[in-house]
Design goal:
Blueprint: H1 3-43, H2 55-82, H3 86-90, E1 94-95, H4 103-119, E2 125-129, E3 137-143, E4 146-152, H5 153-158, H6 161-177, H7 179-212, H8 221-268, H9 271-283, H10 320-327, H11 350-353, H12 366-372, H13 378-390, H14 393-398, H15 402-411, H16 418-429, H17 434-447, H18 455-466, H19 471-485, H20 493-505, H21 507-510, H22 525-539, H23 544-555, H24 575-585, H25 590-604, E5 610-611, H26 612-624, E6 638-639
Length: 648
């Protein structure tokens, strides 16, 4: 799977969605006009089809209908943008406590965490639909920072670990490929059309209540009949809108489900797991159907068909037998119905810690880095399992508490140099919380037993707990991080990486609104590329000649003639400018972002090897560009840095 090609296809699907939505709006406008015109003809006792066309009335109806649909769609999309997990909550979802002791929930969290570390994406929020006995799941999110995965109770308890991993890999594919973002926008646009039917339904109910109140006032029968006619017509228009919006869902989503199946198998290299989950859906009497009242609205989000359709044209998913056969050509179509027994989790959990590191060896090449984006494999999952297993169990369990997660994140910043470390702890004491310095010092002691390459995964594992901080506590965390980073008047590679990850993934959670354009002026793309590559060239260079060589290697990866990049003087490279450059480049086309990421890889790998800190920085840059990059595996010429390289 080519990540950047899929991103381009996602953009084209957005355009296709807009076209379909526009056609649906045009049809709705015509239908509403016809209803209003006929109602007025009836009210004034005129022949129904006399002078049917009235330009003035049509444009009035069109303007009001379009304005209504646009306003409802806008506010729905805005609400989903602020809280994408509202879709899950509307289905009765409950956020799983990261510190849960329930073995089934603990297994699910382990699988999601491993998949997130392996893919280079932040750990999403994990929800359970406790009242759903069927086997199903869904992923929602506008971007990596605001995403969630939910599974039904049946999915949690009836699937083996391999089957659950296949389902989670399928849902991660939707997150990585941008399908979840399209699904949220589709939900908002569809809601704008459905509101026409809701208005008609409300109008009819209000007339029914007036009739039940016993009112005996004289009424204009023609006027009353017109109101009834309009209410019925709007209700029918809304119902027809439901029909066509389901067709839109099917047209947009069906092929994406087959791609997500293929990607899930690519991620795990275990087709049997995903096939097993699909077969259990076919064997279960309940199948994958949901019982939540709002299940139809979110039907295009599900792993498998969540509602019953009267025709296959409405299905947002391919037939179950087709999906199974594509993954398992030997499948003959036998799916005997019956009841399934819950899986004993205790037999599967030890397998997580038993994973071993991959020992494949291949050089860090820019094109290999580009190809790895969004294309994790079983070796990445095995490496993630091994890395998590090497983190002390006490630390893994306690990091799921917000206060401990905060201390661990700050502990990651404590320097090994005794003098610098003392200055950092003094800076923490100056905050006015004497317990904080002790907590951070204790966390730092626990972190000494962790391998250096586990720092970024530990930070990733802490994100779900940090999202549970209050806005004030998040502000205090930002201040503490800033104090630790600036305690020695220089910022190292990992320190910047940590700040960038926190700002991107927690900033989007606590401050979901886009920053004011006046506070961070936009820069040209070519200038942003120059800033980014210059910073990377200086960060890995011991001498000016080394920086120039690294910059030229990076520039060679860019398309000839596309950019006129120049190596900026060191004094013009500061972190605020770098942040602005990354924000600007995140809005560029997918293929261009891939090209820029390849140039970044060339800059840090000029000497043929990548330090752990350089690899972490490269992954943070990829994340900032919206390009989830799997971890560099052992044997990729990654070496521990002997010195603390600084960015500024």
């Amino acid at each position: 799977m080519d990540f950047f090609e899929e991103q381009e296809r996602a953009r084209s699907r957005t355009g296709w969605l807009i076209v379909l939505f526009s056609l649906a709006v045009c049809g709705t406008v015509m239908a509403v006009y016809a209803a209003m015109k006929l109602a007025l003809q009836y009210a004034f006792d005129r022949p129904l089809f006399e002078q049917f066309w009235n330009g003035d009335l049509f444009w009035r109806v069109a303007a009001n209908t379009v304005a209504l649909i646009a306003a409802v769609s806008f506010f729905k999309i805005r609400a989903l943008s602020a809280s994408a997990d509202s879709v899950v909550l509307g289905l009765g979802g409950r956020l799983i406590d990261p510190s849960t002791s329930d073995p089934h929930q603990r297994r699910l969290l382990n699988v999601v965490e491993e998949m997130a570390i392996a893919s280079g994406a932040p750990v999403p929020a994990v929800y359970l639909l406790p009242d759903e006995p069927g086997i199903n799941a869904l992923a929602v999110g506008l971007d990596a920072s605001r995403s969630a995965i939910a599974v039904t109770d049946g999915c949690l308890k009836l699937l083996t670990r391999d089957e659950l991993q296949g389902v989670v890999a399928h849902e991660f594919s939707h997150l990585l490929n941008g399908d979840s973002r399209i699904n949220l926008r589709l939900l908002g646009l569809v809601h704008g059309i459905l509101v026409i039917g809701l208005i008609g339904s409300k109008l009819l109910r209000s007339l029914g209540r007036s009739s039940d109140s016993g009112s005996r006032r004289k009424v204009n029968l023609g006027g009353l009949g017109s109101i009834v006619f309009v209410g019925v017509a709007l209700y029918l228009i809304g119902s027809i809108g439901v029909f066509f919006t389901r067709l839109i869902k099917a047209a947009i989503c069906r092929q994406r489900e087959l791609l997500a199946d293929a990607s899930g198998v690519q991620f795990t290299r275990n087709a049997a797991g995903l096939v097993g989950a699909l077969k259990k859906i076919g064997r279960l009497d309940r199948g994958s159907r949901l019982v939540a009242p709002g299940a139809e609205e979110a039907s295009h989000f599900y792993f498998s068909e969540g509602i019953t359709h009267f025709t296959a044209l409405m299905s947002t998913h391919p037939p179950l037998e087709q999906r199974i056969h594509l993954l398992d050509p030997s499948f003959q179509g036998e799916l005997p119905r019956g009841q399934l027994q819950p899986v004993a989790v205790e037999e599967e959990i030890p397998g997580v810690a038993a994973a071993v590191q991959s020992e494949r060896s291949f050089p860090v090449h820019p094109r290999a880095v580009i190809a790895s984006v969004g294309a994790l494999g079983d070796e990445h999952i095995a490496y993630a399992q091994s890395l998590v297993a090497r983190i002390p169990e006490r630390l893994r369990d306690s990091i799921r508490e917000p206060s401990v997660a905060r201390a661990v994140v700050l502990g990651l910043l404590l320097d090994r140099n005794p003098q610098t470390r003392a200055a950092q702890l003094s800076a923490l004491l100056a905050i006015g919380d004497p317990q904080l310095a002790d907590q951070v010092s204790s966390a730092s002691g626990a972190l000494r037993d962790c391998p250096a390459e586990a720092r970024l995964p530990i930070l990733n594992l802490a994100l779900p707990a940090l999202r549970r901080l209050s806005a004030a506590q998040y502000g205090e965390l930002q201040a503490a991080v800033d104090r630790l980073v600036r305690a020695d008047s220089r910022i190292g590679l990992f320190e910047y990486t940590l700040q960038r990850v926190l700002s991107r993934h927690l900033g989007a959670h606590f401050k979901p609104k886009l920053p004011d354009a006046g506070t961070s002026p936009q820069i040209q793309v070519v200038d942003a590329v120059s800033v980014l590559l210059s910073m990377l060239a200086y960060a890995g260079a011991a001498a000016p000649a080394d920086a120039a060589r690294a910059f030229e290697a990076a520039r060679a990866e860019l398309s000839p003639g596309r950019f006129r990049t120049t190596l900026l003087p060191r004094e013009k490279c500061d972190l605020r400018v770098l942040d602005g450059a990354l924000d600007r480049l995140a809005d560029t086309a997918p293929r261009l972002r891939g090209e820029i990421l390849g140039a970044c890889a060339a800059a840090v790998a000029t000497d043929g090897a990548v330090t752990i800190a350089e690899g972490e920085l490269l992954r943070a840059i990829a994340d900032s560009l919206g390009c989830p990059m799997p971890p560099l595996l052992p044997g990729q010429h990654v070496r521990a840095a002997g010195e603390r390289r600084a960015l500024g």
